[in-house]
Amino acid sequence: MANILILGAGSMSTAFAFPCSDNNHQVSIVGTHLEDNFIDIFKSNKFVHPVLKSKIPKNVKLYKFQSFSSLLKNADLIVLGISSQGFKWACDQLTKIKKNQQILILTKGLGINKNKYEVYPDVIKNFLLKKKIKNIKISVAAGPCLAAELSKRVFTNVVFANRDISVVKNLSKMISTSYYKIKCSSDLIGVAACGGVKNIYSMIVGTSMGMNLKNIKDNKNLNTAAALFNQSIKEMRYFIKKIGGQESTVMDLAGIGDLYVSCTGGRNSKMGKFIGMGLTYKNAKKNKMPNETVEGADLIFDIGKKIINDFTKEELPLISSFIKALIHNTKFKIEKKFFL
Predict the structure, then answer these.
(1) What is the pLDDT of residues 88-127, one digit of tens each?
(2) Three-point CA angle 111, 19, 58, nearest 5°
(3) Which of 36, 133, 162, 223 lies at 20 to 30 Å from 325 by C-alpha?
(4) Sheet of strand 156-161: strand arrangement
(5) Which is it for the CA torsion 142, 146, 152, 156, positive or negative?
(6) Pick from 76, 94, 86, 194: nearest CA to 141
(7) Residues 6+ apart with CB under 8 A from 70
(8) DSSP character at residue 320
């Protein structure tokens, strides 16, 4: 039995506690410094997560952030389930971890360091190295996983990645269940980068849902969605290969699998729908989704300008045009030149 410490009380981090608990591990969920009130609501709701509508197992304990430091001392595995906006804050909380600590990242995103793309495991690694903290095993989880379904123990197939594949093989043995199957990969860059960039492409595919609302009865526009999905995969393969990942990763769980799930629902595709209806991003965010985090948009504002500078519109026509629309707050229009 291991001590698993999960930082963040959001939907995905809470859902991840279920397979951990079902393996008889001691699991602690610690809210961030911004989630104290949420933890109170969570507990007062008889330990039913307000968003997931699922009751956490009895051996999963809930804590406010003030307990994080004390729980950190005995943690065998630290799981980061915070939003991409809180990732740098989360790094600051890891300066007291013990030697050979294992960390698993659920957060999906991508950063920039010295004008190079940097996946989140390397963000943490380089941050800790500056603090003279070495020998930390940092892995990342990605793939098609809706938190609500995982919390109901619906069969789910994901991928864990570490440059040393033996690390994630051990994690797989530790966390896998009959309903939570883990594939292992050594393509850390490809898996982590797919997890972030697919959020942008799920917004793009989501624009199809907002088009021609008066003419298409069910509002799905599946022809357009399929065309956008196909082009998205082409561009993801090109992008991932250029930054040092493997194209084959895009054609597996972290790429095509995760993009498929994200396009069927969620905040990114929801925002895409509003943009497809003809709204600018700022208008849609302010009037339609004022209190919801749209991680695909956050990623665009973090790395979008670099993508435009690094790639031509002929190489990545779809994402380049979408990035420009969000950065300049203009309307996004689908054009036939996007489809190679």
Answers:
(1) 999 999 998 988 899 999 999 999 999 999 999 999 999 9
(2) 115
(3) 223
(4) 60-63, 26-30, 3-7, 77-80, 102-105, 137-142, 156-161, 180-185
(5) negative
(6) 194
(7) none
(8) H
Nearest to 64 by CA among 95, 35, 88, 93: 35
Tell me the DSSP string of 244-288.
T--HHHHTSIIIIIHHHHHHTSSHHHHHHHHHHTT--HHHHHHHT
DSSP reduced 3-state for 137: strand
For residue range 199-239, what is the model confidence (pLDDT) as tens digits? 999 999 999 998 876 565 666 788 999 999 999 999 999 99
In sequence order, which ranges of 57-164 are alpha helices (DSSP H)?
68-72, 87-92, 120-130, 147-150
Written as six digits, the tokens of 130 are 């500056």
Q: Please, what sign has the CA dihedral across residues 152, 37, 39, 69? A: positive
Q: Are strands 116-119 and 110-113 parallel, antiparallel or unpaired?
A: antiparallel
Phi and psi (nearest 5°) for 78?
-105, 125
User: In whole angstroms, how large is the CA radius of gyration of the chain?
Assistant: 20
